[in-house]
Amino acid sequence: MKTCCLKILAVFTFLVLLLSCGISGSDKTGTADPDSLLNFVRKRIEQKKQFEDFRKRTLPRDFEKKIENYYPVIRKYSKRYGFDWRLIVMQILKESRFREDARSHKGAIGLMQIMPSTALELHQEMDIEFIANNPRENIAAGIYHLYKQVRYFPDADRDNRVKLGLAAYNSGIGRIRDAQSVARHLKMDSQTWEAVKYCLPKLTTQDWRLHLEVWELGVPNYGYFHGFQQTLDYVEEIIRNYQIFIEMYR
Q1: Neighbouring C-beta atoms of residue 250, cutoff 10 Å
Q2: CB of 114 within 8 A of CB of 138?
């Protein structure tokens, strides 16, 4: 009962503050339009519910502690390679849920789930040694690896470059190249995520007739791709959560 009363008091206080400020819809005398005010309050309440649902459904319990711990390195390398740090946070969340010891069944390691072969390549390019067991170096390497993927799409606009880069990070650039080949054959804009999202499912054996039209050997250059759904979900989930996270951490 006490909690309920506190909530009502909080909403009432919020309404009083809004009225005193003459927020959106006010006339020249500073009196707020009740309908506009009510709609605004409803929108804010719904937004707060969405945030709370997002926290419970998506974020690990120690999320705030993880952010505090890794924010400096995330911020540093996000800025260096031109990413919004909040996007990288959502990618880490998707990759490992901020578990430093995360390891996939394919052998991907760390917060950014970097494959051993990729870690070796990044070690040589970045001159960092402990990608596998140093969380901060794993983050630095992962952000740089995403940057490399994004650079494969110079003709796409910024929004599509990021989505295509995320897809390449998850599936490998070869799969995205094959999807782009299908997109061009179908007269679609191969520099957009929407086109690639449509064409990735067409890289399975089921579409062998289409493959005969696209490739001389009748198979995708990088082989059949039956794991397309994972890549589609990967990109869509990160972007969806990122858009919510932006509103939470403006």
Answers
A1: 6
A2: yes
Q: Delineate the domains of the chain, giving CATH numbers in brackets.
A: 63-150 (1.10.530.10), 158-248 (no CATH)
* Active-site residue set: 95
List pLDDT tens digits, range 12-29: 444 444 444 444 444 444
Query: d(Cα 44, Cα 29) in Å, to the nearest integer?
Result: 25
Residues 51-93: tens digit of each pLDDT = 777 777 788 889 989 999 999 999 999 999 999 999 999 999 9
Q: Which residue has the higher pLDDT, 228 or 106?
A: 228
What is the Cα–Cα distance from 199 to 195, expressed in whole angstroms?
A: 6
The amino acid sitting at 239 is I
| CA atoms of 33 and 27, how far apart (whole Å) | 8
